Description:
This protein is of the alpha+beta class. The relative contact order is 0.21. The N and C termini lie far apart (29 Å). It has helices at residues 32-40, 52-60, and strands spanning 17-20, 26-29. 30% of the residues lie in helices and 13% in strands. It has a two-stranded antiparallel ribbon. The protein contains two helices and two strands. The mean pLDDT is 91. The radius of gyration is 12 Å and the shape is globular. The chain has one domain (17-60): CATH 2.30.170.20.
Amino acid sequence: xxxxxxxxxxxxxxxxxxxxxxxxxxxxxxxxxxxxxxxxxxxxxxxxxxxxxxxxxxxxx
Length: 61
């Protein structure tokens, strides 16, 4: 199961989107919401409340 590069949610194979950058890095997105937040709006996943990385970042503080 791939994990979303933005929100950290696991999703089924055959769904979502795979984006390959020129550097060879592969980014998986579970929805267009996650893709737009990362690529177009350039948001940091730790700063967005509904992402998994935000939840773990707050616990560590």
